[in-house]
Specification:
A: mainly alpha, MetI-like fold, 2 domains, B: mainly alpha, 12 helices
């Protein structure tokens, strides 16, 4: 390398550092701008009546009560379906599956499913749950659809969590005559819980924000009642926000912003909890 | 006791098979209902007609406008996400301290976790008006706004995965480069990026796939006019928006017009399916290199 | 009658042969040491006795292994086998649970529900492992809060809780400091009365100190097996002589 160039090289090197920081700043500023914009539009609209009112054609009177109720109910059903299945599948693939073509095949499948656009899940849910199974555009159809969507997230998180458990612990358990299931239940799963929990929370966060598949299965935007059972129709907060966003009147835009504040806050809190748990768990597991 | 163990294992196996069943069901549903569509509309027409107007009185069933809308918005998104994502990845990997990159990585990943309706709102209500001040002729619904916002959203797909790929490059390569007096930039560009290239390519493919499948941002901000255009200032409609549009409308089920969503969905699925498989295969290939 | 015995045992990891025609008998209530350089098969042989090698893919075994004259690969249920034979590993591997739960683990997986019985057995196991007084009754602490040496004694207590008749130890003190090592060796000598001990060790002085008989392995073969005193002062085979005088390995 020529001596004369070294200054130029050092210059380029430092320049890149600032370029990198600039890019980071750009990315994060957009997020910051978004948060600022939303809050400045909608914060004042947030009050008790907003949270507790039913939807209405009058923007000032409209509230997100049914959207919240629908969202929570939907989430509960989705979790009840997706979590047990996802964890069981994850355990099987990581602890029980042999490294043969079948395991590989399932792995490809899961990787594919993780990349399928959410509208396609909506189409699947529409044809299978809403029409063929005749569940209609109900909570349970929505729950099944979302459950399929978040299943890969839970499975992958479970597998990685189980993989991180040191094999010396398994050896100790087998050495004492424990069976595979005993070892899994008593030693592996408790140690993997942190990672699994992180995955579940991230899956919940994803499910909360999903709009497109629910629209395709026919979830309505205007639902003036609180769903009482799994066969009832429903709406969710993202759908309500979408509905308001597409209205031209400024008052509905304000409503949308207020709804977004709630949605965003819930999502960010969930994600922070997940990150926190993951951090604590990694410390625990690497001893 | 052995019987109980076998039972549990069987239940677990069935749970994992559910994923296979799901994929099969998706393919089955799309193919079956597309066949219904293609009985009435020829594949040739579907692929070559330059208009998509199934809901109008004069019906055209060419997928090109929708495909164009999808590709245009995706292209803009990738144009934003790849440079930013890569530069950030290199910066976090070679320049920033462990602590900083450890803190910033999860923060960046938040970008991908924000519900997309929120981004859609932002694109429509903030970005479009802002851009309209500087760009002459920018329509209220356009491809640029959602494209840019999507780009920001998928930055973590590129930055996180590329950073992982860069981190997986053996320390010995770095030491060889620094040992010869190379700067961080030179090491990164001449040694690390080439070594991590398959991982980086995988991240780009996954980001493209994600952008192709995005619905809400474009549904809110790009418009509902299928148009065969390369001008990002115009309003366009993507495949995903169209599917939602029909679902929200009152087209009778099982009609030809309704079945268009399956043909459109099938097209989208083929793209993302191909991309996902390519990336999976690539990932497996480069994973083995350093083992 | 031997406590443990192997006849013409061969083990293959895929195509690679790790054990070649091993035939030997382990005496009951004695301490038997396996010595030899790295890769000689001593750990592999040890793990055959409680069928831990079953957990590794692609292993195949010929010949027979006997516990109390029963063939452990054909006539004994593997889970029952591992309850009759305890194992202690090189690096202490307590479960990330409390001290009490670690020792109680073996009892719980056997379906034992009687709380008093469990508590009694935990106490007696900890006493056998010379840990009881040190813990000062605080058994709810995490096992990971103990020192390395204490953790290893905990692992021994854990293995003893199911009252096995054989204890297999794979270099149990190699990860410990000299004081902890001395305590472990003292413990092993005390255990001789209750269990048969087979210990794999890299440390020849250790083998000479505590074992009754010693087996020297090299490249998968049993080279010499005799009273410890004889092996270390007057071995028959030249290879043994070279190993114990440090000419190789």
């Amino acid at each position: 390398m020529k001596r004369g160039n070294s200054n130029l090289l050092t210059l380029k090197d430092s320049a890149f550092k600032y370029l990198g920081i600039t890019c980071l700043v750009i990315a994060l500023s957009v997020l910051a701008l978004l948060i600022w914009d939303i809050f400045s539009r909608g914060l004042l609209r947030l009050n008790w009546s907003f949270l507790s009112n039913l939807p209405s054609r009058h923007a000032e009177k409209a509230g997100i009560r049914t959207a919240l109720a629908g969202m929570i109910s939907l989430l509960l059903f989705t979790i009840m379906v997706a979590v047990p299945i996802g964890i069981m599948a994850g355990i099987y693939l990581e602890e029980y599956g042999r490294k043969n073509w079948f395991a590989k095949f399932v792995e490809i499948n899961i990787s594919n499913l993780a990349g399928v656009p959410s509208v396609i899940y909506g189409i699947l849910g529409l044809q299978v749950f809403v029409r063929t199974a005749e569940l209609g555009n109900s909570l349970i159809a929505g729950a099944f659809t979302l459950a399929l969507l978040i299943l890969p997230i839970i499975i992958v998180a479970t597998r990685e969590a189980i993989r991180a458990v040191p094999s010396s612990l398994r050896d100790a358990s087998y050495g004492m005559g424990a069976t595979k299931w005993q070892t899994t239940r008593r030693v592996v799963l408790p140690s993997a819980m942190g990672g699994i929990l992180t995955g579940i929370i991230l899956a919940i966060s994803r499910a909360i924000g999903e709009t497109a598949p629910l629209l395709v299965i026919g979830a309505l935007a205007y639902v003036p009642f609180i769903p009482e059972g799994p066969k009832d129709q429903f709406t969710t907060l993202p759908i309500q926000v979408f509905n308001w966003t597409t209205r031209p009147q400024a008052t509905f835009i304000v409503n949308a912003a207020a709804g977004i504040i709630i949605l965003l806050t819930v999502t960010l809190i969930l994600n922070s909890i997940a990150i926190y748990i993951r951090g604590r768990w990694y410390k625990k597991i690497s001893y | 006791m052995r019987a109980k163990e076998k039972m549990i294992e069987l239940v677990m196996l069935l749970c994992s098979l559910l994923t296979v069943v799901t994929t099969a069901a998706i393919i089955f549903v799309l193919v079956k209902d597309s066949i219904g569509f293609f009985r009435e509309v020829s594949i040739g027409e579907f692929l070559t007609d330059t208009q998509w107007t199934p809901l109008f009185s004069e019906k055209h069933f060419g997928i090109l406008p929708l495909l164009c809308g999808t590709l245009l918005t995706t292209f803009i998104a990738i144009l934003v996400a790849v440079p930013l994502g890569l530069i950030i990845a290199i910066y976090l990997n070679e320049y920033a301290s462990r602590k900083i990159s450890g803190t910033l990585k999860p923060v960046l990943e938040t970008l991908a976790a924000v519900p997309t309706v929120i981004y859609g709102f932002f694109a429509l209500q903030f970005v479009t008006p802002l851009l309209q001040e500087v760009i002459h002729g920018l329509a209220g619904f356009n491809a640029l706004s959602p494209g840019l916002v999507m780009g920001i959203m998928i930055i973590p797909y590129i930055s996180s995965l590329s950073e992982d790929a860069l981190r997986a490059v053996p320390q010995s390569l770095r030491e060889a480069s620094y040992g010869m007096g190379a700067t961080r930039l030179q090491t990164a560009l001449k040694v690390l990026v080439p070594a991590a290239s398959s991982g980086i390519i995988v991240s780009v493919i996954l980001a493209i796939s994600r952008a192709l499948g995005e619905t809400m941002i474009v549904a809110i901000a790009a418009g509902q006019e299928p148009k065969l255009t390369a001008d990002p200032r115009e309003s366009v409609e993507t495949i995903t928006t169209y599917i939602v549009q029909v679902s929200l409308g009152d087209v009778p089920q099982d009609s030809l017009e309704y079945n268009t969503i399956f043909a459109a969905g099938m097209t989208l699925f083929v793209f993302t399916f191909l991309l996902n498989n390519i990336s999976f295969w690539l990932r497996k290939k480069y994973q083995n290199r350093y083992e | 009658m031997y406590k443990l015995e192997t006849r013409e045992a061969n083990l293959f990891y895929g195509a690679k042969q790790a054990l070649k025609g091993i035939s030997m008998g382990i005496d009951a209530n004695a301490i038997t040491a396996f010595i030899g350089p790295s890769g000689c098969g001593k750990s592999t042989l040890l793990r055959c006795f409680n069928r831990m090698n079953d957990l590794i893919d692609n292993t195949s075994i010929t010949g027979s292994f006997l516990l109390d004259t029963e063939d452990i690969y054909r006539d004994v249920d593997v889970y029952q086998l591992r309850k009759r034979i305890g194992m202690v590993f090189q690096k202490p591997n307590p479960f990330p649970k409390s001290i009490f739960e670690n020792v109680a683990y073996g009892l719980r997986i056997n379906g034992e529900k009687n709380k008093t019985l469990i508590a009694d057995k935990v106490e007696s196991s900890l006493k056998s492992a010379a840990l009881w007084t040190e813990l000062e009754g605080n058994l709810k602490r995490s096992a990971l809060s103990l020192s390395g040496g204490q953790q290893q004694r905990l692992c021994i207590a854990r293995a003893l809780a199911t009252e096995p008749t054989v204890l297999l130890m794979d270099e149990p003190a190699s990860a410990l400091d000299p004081i902890a090592t001395a305590k472990i060796e003292e413990l092993i000598l005390e255990l001789k009365n209750k269990v048969t001990v087979v210990i794999v060790t890299h440390n020849m002085q250790q083998a000479a100190r505590i074992s009754d008989k010693t087996a020297f392995f090299y490249l998968g073969e049993l080279i010499e097996y005799d009273e410890t005193k004889k092996i270390f002062t007057n071995p028959d085979k030249e290879q043994t002589q070279n190993y114990i005088t440090g000419r190789f390995g």
